[in-house]
Write a structure and sequence with these properties.
This is DNTP triphosphohydrolase. By secondary structure, the chain is mainly alpha-helical. It contains 21 helices and 2 strands. The termini are far apart.
Length: 449
């Protein structure tokens, strides 16, 4: 791979462009960031939980605040790596690329890293998958779609849903190829002949069966080689997007857990101190009067240290990354990797498996399964079992968006695009919208009640 090609700025499906916008002082990659900020899918993240149900009094992170913080860390990582790349490859400057451009790409891609996540977090992903794997009105579609399409439905993946949303005509984002590729941490489809488990980029999948050609076009544009049928190397900047997310959720979920009393301040301090090493000064920390101030200074110092470590590892591995010989998470091999592993183990035990989180996940399963059931049943009866199409089904289908594709389906027509649109509708909801609609379609509450 070559950096000059990897940093291409021609917008997807939008004709040619230059590295600097003639209509403003913003670069193309800064425009990417701004378009994302003002998009409806990004705004919806404000009412999607990150880990915890949102309490009345104590601040904890939503998907929106988490994404903004990941984007901020991503900009720091990208700018620092950009300084290194501009120094190592002077011809990048001749192509109009600056270190700030590289920071802007990582920042924009990081801003979108959770944009495809459904309501109720990872439990929402499992709920959508389980509906098709186990529910009768999920199973009815199995013989109507292809094997790869069925694999998509039975293994919902927020990363692939995010890729779909970034390229969606309805969203109208038309982002730069470099930003979309940096977003795509798992450049493969769900069904592959043989997954290379040694490669981090093969752990999950990043695009649906009906978007293989779109990713292939993206890879060709940027000079990203394939390593197997429909499987590709990562864009190098995807490693930085992943690192920004790893840093933020490791440190900030710990901070939220402490804020909510799921672990004591002393334990959080003991977990973060190994990251700081000689920088950790207990006597100075004790000069801060409140727990929130102590957590805030520890968080800031820990993130700064982890950014420095990830930048150094990326610089060390940059040639291997370009050659496709490195495919691991940066945070797995930095000096603080052991400390992060300890934080992760404690977080699983005391935070991710805490009662409030488990209760939220249980509710998420009920809500999303219930919504998918009523809509999938009505669609199946409308187009594939018309003798069972009822008045209730008619009422349910009137609740779908006006833009929902309600024409052209029926016997011998593959319903995969129809189901993708249904999943777009459900997964795009906020937590509150999903819960409110579930209550209404199940008769638990009435409009205006």
């Amino acid at each position: 791979m070559q950096w000059e090609k990897l940093l291409a700025v021609d917008r997807l499906k939008a004709g040619k462009s230059t590295a600097f916008s003639v209509e403003s002082s913003r670069t193309e990659f800064e425009i990417d960031y701004d378009r994302i900020i003002f998009s409806a899918p990004f705004r919806n993240l404000q009412d999607k939980t990150q880990v915890f149900p949102l309490p009345e009094h104590d601040f904890v992170h939503t998907r929106l605040t988490h994404s903004l913080e990941v984007s901020s860390v991503g900009r720091s990582l990208g700018k620092a790596v950009g300084d290194f790349l501009i120094d190592k490859y002077p011809n990048l400057s001749q192509h109009g690329i600056s270190a700030s451009d590289i920071g802007a790409i990582v920042s924009a891609a990081a801003l979108t890293h959770d944009i495809g996540n459904p309501p109720f977090g990872h439990a929402g992903e499992d709920a959508i998958s389980d509906f098709f794997k186990f529910h009768p009105f999920g199973q009815v579609w199995k013989n109507l779609v292809g094997d790869a399409e069925w694999q998509d439905l039975c293994q919902f993946e927020g990363n692939a849903q995010g890729f779909r949303m970034l390229l969606s005509k309805a969203a109208g984002l038309k982002l730069s190829p470099a930003t979309v590729a940096a977003f795509t941490k798992y450049p493969r489809p769900s069904l592959v002949d043989q997954r290379d488990k040694s490669r981090r980029s093969q752990k999950k999948y990043g695009f649906f069966a009906n978007q293989k050609e779109e990713y292939a076009e993206l890879a060709t544009t940027l000079g990203i080689p394939s390593i197997a049928d429909d499987c590709y190397l990562r864009h190098p900047l995807a490693f930085l997007v992943e690192a920004a997310d790893d840093i933020c959720y490791s440190i900030i979920d710990l901070e939220d857990g402490c804020t909510l009393g799921l672990l004591q301040l002393e334990e959080a301090v003991s977990l973060l101190a190994p990251i700081l090493g000689d920088q950790f000064k207990p006597e100075k920390l004790n000069t801060y009067p409140s727990q929130s101030q102590k957590l805030g200074i520890l968080r800031a110092m820990s993130i700064r240290q982890l950014v420095l470590e990830c930048v150094e590892v990326f610089k060390e591995k940059e040639a291997e990354i370009l050659a496709g010989n490195f495919d691991r998470s940066l945070t797995d091999i930095i000096p603080s990797a052991a400390a992060l592993a300890t934080i992760s183990a404690v977080s699983v035990k005391k935070i991710y498996r805490s009662k409030p989180v488990l209760e939220k996940e249980a509710a998420g399963f009920q809500v999303l399964e219930g919504l998918l059931q009523v809509f999938a049943k009505a669609l199946y009866h409308r187009f594939y079992k018309q003798e069972h199409f009822s008045g209730q089904d008619k009422s349910i289908l009137r609740l779908l968006p006006e833009t929902f594709p309600m024409e052209g389906w029926g016997e011998n027509i593959n319903p995969y695009p129809l189901l993708r649109s249904l999943i777009d509708f459900v997964s795009g909801m906020t937590d509150k919208h999903a819960l409110s609609l579930y209550r209404r379609v199940k008769g638990i509450s009435l409009p205006g009640a």
